Amino acid sequence: MHETGVVLTDIRKSFGSLEVIHGIDLRIAEGSFVVFVGPSGCGKSTLLRMIAGLEEVTDGEIEIKGRNVTDLDPSDRGIAMVFQSYALYPHMSVRENLAFGLKMARTETAEIEARVKAASAILKIDHLLDRRPGQLSGGQRQRVAIGRAIVRKPDVFLFDEPLSNLDAELRVSMRIEIARLHRELGNTMIYVTHDQTEAMTLADKIVVLRDGRIEQAGTPREVYENPANIFVAGFIGSPR
Ligand code: ADP
Ligand code: MG
């Protein structure tokens, strides 16, 4: 076991000549639940995509479990990402959607079956395995999307606003599910949201971003009770 799950060292990102991430340093403890929060356009997705390897860093270094992954492909980083749009394959059953990534990675059939079974039990979608995505509710689809991440047994889960397409009631129940998942799996989770309530209730550590910089990082309580500046106070303190 490594003490540090993810380390970001002076991460920068430019699109063309425009720098949008301005030197982020962050240490994320293994097994912790870290939430990146901040207004639209502050760089949450870009930062997460760089950790995932979906976006190259312009400068800086990314370490996952003590390994420098900065130049590795997404599939070699030990991560799995869940997006806001579920991106399920519409012509495949739930079972096939869950198994697809593992098949591509040439995982043994028995192992695939075992992992699909375990993941669908955890997510309570065992009864939906033969359905197609079009026959599922929004919440069920998002469970399948999370299931696709779980079957890969990643070291780190990356979530980019996974609940923002769901209605308010479902958002609350899925939020509770995700917290439960974190307790049961014990993985490092990095979760992006612009929703202050999600951040406050899910996080061990909140990272408040603004314009590509960290304004404050701390426990929900620290950030709430002792905001570093007026921006953080306004952002975390204000009701939605
Ligand atoms: P957030 O997820 O916090 O809403 P993003 O990471 O999507 O923010 O975007 C951060 C900034 O980077 C924004 O100014 C956005 O316009 C810019 N940006 C993101 N992706 C691209 C891209 N592919 N090309 C150019 N600019 C981009
Ligand atoms: Mg985003």
TrEMBL record:
<keyword id="KW-0997">Cell inner membrane</keyword>
<protein>
    <submittedName>
        <fullName>sn-glycerol-3-phosphate ABC transporter ATP-binding protein UgpC</fullName>
    </submittedName>
</protein>
<keyword id="KW-0614">Plasmid</keyword>
<dbReference type="GO" id="GO:0016887">
    <property type="term" value="F:ATP hydrolysis activity"/>
</dbReference>
<dbReference type="GO" id="GO:0015423">
    <property type="term" value="F:ABC-type maltose transporter activity"/>
</dbReference>
<dbReference type="GO" id="GO:0005524">
    <property type="term" value="F:ATP binding"/>
</dbReference>
<comment type="similarity">
    <text>Belongs to the ABC transporter superfamily.</text>
</comment>
<keyword id="KW-0472">Membrane</keyword>
<dbReference type="GO" id="GO:0055052">
    <property type="term" value="C:ATP-binding cassette (ABC) transporter complex, substrate-binding subunit-containing"/>
</dbReference>
<keyword id="KW-0547">Nucleotide-binding</keyword>
<keyword id="KW-0067">ATP-binding</keyword>
<keyword id="KW-1003">Cell membrane</keyword>
<keyword id="KW-0813">Transport</keyword>
<dbReference type="GO" id="GO:1990060">
    <property type="term" value="C:maltose transport complex"/>
</dbReference>
